[in-house]
Design a protein that fits this description.
17 helices, Rossmann fold, five-stranded parallel beta sheet, alpha/beta, 44% helix, 468 residues
């Protein structure tokens, strides 16, 4: 495979030609719905039409997208910033590597050994350690019985920490501490607050390890059997925002709903992973990535909205916001050059009819066009009527929207949904020529916080605290 000099989207001759011929006017329903497993994507009210397929097929060929996808899946160290392979797809493979299989067996054994010992479980962590698992746990309650009450703490705000802890019967609560590095500042802050709360309410600190487990990389500071009843491992090749199908999502889902339902999530994700190899016209992840290119680089839309129409999907937008923004919110190419075009748009979110009375005025008549990705569930007629009405109202003003329809909110469907978005992110990054699997911007504030030596930090801190 031979790359262009800088491996940029603009080095594709077909993309350059498309810039001069593209028309953003929506011609309705020229593109039929496409189903991959339990997901059906309706593109009929977007600028993506059958006439554009040859251009994007050529762009995909010129950008070597399929070959690069294969390289990623072959465990080549694609994440060159950190010199790591990208292995989250292996988590749901029916015949995974031994290191994945071993951890899966370990948390299933933990579930069996501790069944009926706990009434509550609290997962503590930041970003990908919380957002994906929280979205799954909330969604599954629409269809399955919870055997243990789930809770999450991701803020160092004492108000949130105390509010959650007050709900807990401490003597029958399992605490799950998640940090790949084992050094996440906020996670340790929360864990110390829990220890203080534990002892302040009459419990011996030496009893806490029996009700605590960690999820981390081997040999991290929280890989410590003296502190934790069990230490579960995640590999460095699994990015936090791609870790929901690992033990990060698997342990709490298994404890709350039973391991069978998490296995169904893995099956759904694997099914969509296989469909991510389909040709463009049958591949909803690759088509969605092409639609993103249309919005960002042909229409110059700098924002996008994701609006699920189901309370079951209440926590999904936060998870997707992190997945999209942390993966592709970058201005530097994989080869280290400044990109000459826009990448990931700002992501706006909301839930169903509530959002209609909050942000839809701007969506319909704002001075900038914001495409909407609607997400619905096929058997919810009342809410789906609203999706249709909003889509048509947007279309009347040439404002695009797509509709992703889920067959149901089963574990299998949720697994497919996870895979669909993860693979869309992968294809977007390949088309743009960026590394979707690092997050150097996340570290910038951490570096300043770690020392607080910047004079401006001290000056601003004095101003803020002095004004109170």
């Amino acid at each position: 495979m031979r790359d262009c000099k800088n491996d940029l989207l603009t080095e594709s001759e077909s993309f350059t030609k498309l810039i001069h011929t593209f028309n953003s006017k929506i011609i309705p329903f020229t593109f039929p719905p496409i189903s991959n497993g339990p997901l059906t994507l309706h593109y009929g009210l977007t600028p993506l039409s059958h006439d554009l397929l040859p251009s994007f097929q050529a762009i995909i060929k010129e950008r070597h997208i399929i070959q690069k996808q294969a390289l990623i899946l072959s465990e080549t160290p694609w994440n060159t910033t950190e010199n790591r392979a990208v292995c989250h797809h292996l988590l749901r493979h029916p015949h995974p590597p031994q290191w994945i299989k071993k951890e899966h067996q370990k948390w299933n054994a933990f579930y069996t050994d501790t069944k009926n010992q706990f009434t509550d479980i609290v997962q503590i962590g930041m970003g990908g350690s919380i957002l994906g698992p929280k979205a799954i746990i909330h969604a599954l309650r629409a269809q399955y019985k919870q055997h243990v009450n789930p809770h999450f703490i991701s803020s160092i705000d004492p108000i949130e920490i105390n509010h959650t802890l007050k709900q807990l019967p401490l003597s029958s609560t399992l605490f799950v501490i998640v940090s790949k590095s084992g050094t996440t500042i906020e996670t340790h802050h929360i864990w110390n607050a829990i220890k203080n709360y534990w002892t302040a309410h009459g419990h011996l600190l030496e009893k806490l390890p029996h009700q605590s487990v960690s999820i981390t990389c081997p040999k991290s500071p929280i890989d410590d059997p003296k502190q934790f009843r069990e230490c579960f491992y995640i590999d460095t090749t699994i990015g936090g925002r791609f870790s929901v199908t690992s033990v990060v999502g698997g342990l709490i889902t298994s404890v709350v709903y039973g391991p069978t339902h998490f296995d169904e999530i893995l099956k759904g994700a694997y099914q969509l992973d296989q469909m991510a190899h389909f040709p463009l016209e049958k591949n909803i992840s690759l088509l969605s990535a092409c639609l993103t290119i249309i919005y960002c680089n042909l229409c110059d839309y700098n924002a996008r909205a994701i609006i699920p129409y189901s309370e079951a999907l209440y926590d999904l937008p936060d998870y997707l916001q992190q997945l999209l923004c942390e993966s592709n919110g970058k201005q530097i190419s994989k080869n280290g050059t400044l990109l000459p075009y826009t990448t990931n748009p700002a992501i706006m979110t909301g839930i169903g009819t509530d959002a209609q009375h909050a942000t839809f005025q701007q969506f319909h008549q704002g001075s900038t066009i914001i495409p909407i990705d609607f997400i619905g569930i096929s058997n919810n007629t009342a809410l789906n009527n609203h999706i249709i009405a909003q889509s048509l109202a947007l279309y009347q003003n040439n404002r695009p929207s797509s509709i992703l329809m889920l067959k149901n909110v089963s574990a299998t469907t949720l697994g497919a949904l996870i895979s669909y978005y993860e693979n869309t992110v992968l294809f977007e990054g390949l088309l743009w020529g960026i590394n979707s699997f690092d997050q150097p911007g996340v570290e910038l504030g951490k570096k300043i916080l770690s020392t607080k030596s910047d004079p401006l930090f001290q000056q601003l801190f004095s101003q803020i605290t002095g004004a109170l």
